[in-house]
Design a protein that fits this description.
- The strands form 5 sheets. The chain has a 6-stranded parallel sheet with strand order 15-14-13-16-17-18, sandwiched between helices.
- Helices cover about 25% and strands about 30% of the residues.
- By secondary structure, it is an alpha/beta fold.
- The chain is built from 10 helices and 18 strands.
- Strand 16, helix 8 (about 265-275) and strand 17 (about 275-285) form a beta-alpha-beta unit.
- The protein folds into 2 domains: about 10-175, Medium-chain alcohol dehydrogenases, catalytic domain (Quinone Oxidoreductase, Chain A, domain 1); about 180-310, NAD(P)-binding Rossmann-like Domain (Rossmann fold, 3-Layer(aba) Sandwich).
- Keywords: Metal-binding, Oxidoreductase, Zinc.
- Its cofactor is Zn(2+).
- InterPro entries: ADH-like_C, ADH-like_N, GroES-like_sf, NAD(P)-bd_dom_sf.
- Belongs to the zinc-containing alcohol dehydrogenase family.
- This is L-idonate 5-dehydrogenase.
């Protein structure tokens, strides 16, 4: 008797016609109200593929929507499916023939850039679509109606969001592609870091990825800061040369970093970033601060002529990250 085994791609493609009409999804309803809801799987548009979500990373914004009902200036006004750090496989290709075929492993660029509407729409640089006022993002309450995310079994996504991955890339690792792109963009905002001293405030997932990107970019000395031992262990494993406890303000001030990446997302971290920067240095703020005024003493930014830069999401860096992986 001869046994035949379908490839994973063939099996997935064969199952494409058997998609359910609904499935479980992680939904934030309000502050402290997180549920697993059964949500409908609607018919995809002609340029949309159906993705089976296999891995998802939990972003800080996902936690903020759940715990606080808001992420920065984005406030929940209705239930929101969370999730934008995902990897998976195409189970049904786009009907218009564009994009990857069924069975293809993919990562996702969650943004849909778009200009604002009306004569008073905010202006933005054309080469920085992440700043476009009409931009939407999977799993974001920045606009209303909100843009549902991808923490569900299946999700319809436009093919322009999809990035085909090599079969050799582990899909669990691939779930880090989106946050790694955020880190890559933050380091790019700092300029050329080769041969420089870099200080990373906050060594959580984004901070650890920033350390790895700084190492790849040629930083000569990388100092990682956090309140807890485990994040500092991870930072060391991915390239930090030194670690400091966030409570040791004097040690942080002595670093005198050419480049500081603030990834903690709180005003204490931003104060440490300013104090740890060398005169004429650059501070990149990638950690999302809470909404409202922040009690940060910024006089040193004036007297030391520090360049304070924001870093928001990313653009095409996702393709560089995939190539690097």
């Amino acid at each position: 008797m001869t046994h035949t085994t379908e490839s994973s791609a063939e099996t997935t493609a064969a199952a494409a016609t058997e998609l359910p009409v609904s499935g479980p999804a992680v939904v934030a309803h309000a502050k402290g109200d997180l549920r697993i809801d059964d949500v409908p799987l609607t018919a995809p548009a002609p340029d949309e593929a159906v993705i089976e979500v296999l891995y998802g990373g939990i972003c800080g914004s996902d936690l903020h929507y759940w715990l606080h009902g808001a992420a920065g200036e984005s406030i929940l006004k209705a239930p929101l499916v969370l999730g934008h750090e995902i990897s998976g496989r195409v189970v049904r290709a786009a009907a218009d023939g564009s994009g990857p075929a069924a069975g293809t492993p993919v990562a996702v660029h969650p943004a849909t850039p778009g200009p604002g509407t009306g004569p008073d729409a905010p202006r933005y640089p054309a080469d920085r679509p992440n700043l476009s006022p009409g931009c939407t993002y999977l799993g974001s309450a920045a606009r209303f109606p909100h843009t549902d995310g991808a923490f569900s079994r299946y999700v319809n996504l436009p093919v322009r969001m999809l990035r085909a991955l090599p079969e050799t890339l582990d899909l669990r690792t691939a779930a880090l592609i989106e946050p790694a792109s955020v880190a890559w963009h933050a380091v790019a905002r700092a300029g050329d870091v080769a041969g420089k001293t870099a200080l990373v405030i906050g060594s959580g997932p984004i901070g650890a990825l920033v350390v790895a990107v700084l190492k790849r970019a040629g930083a000569a000395r990388i100092v990682a800061v956090d309140m807890h031992a485990k994040p500092l262990e991870i930072a060391t494993a991915v390239g930090a040369d030194e670690t400091l406890n966030a409570a040791d303000g004097e040690a942080i001030a002595r670093v005198q970093a050419d480049v500081v990446i603030e990834s903690s997302g709180n005003h204490h971290g931003l104060a440490s970033a300013i104090q740890g920067a060398a005169r004429g240095g650059t501070v990149v703020m990638v950690g999302l601060l809470p909404t409202g005024p922040q009690p940060v003493l910024i006089s040193l930014a004036i007297t030391r002529e520090l360049d304070l830069k924001g870093s928001f999401r990313f653009n095409d860096e996702i393709d560089e990250v995939i190539t690097a992986l």
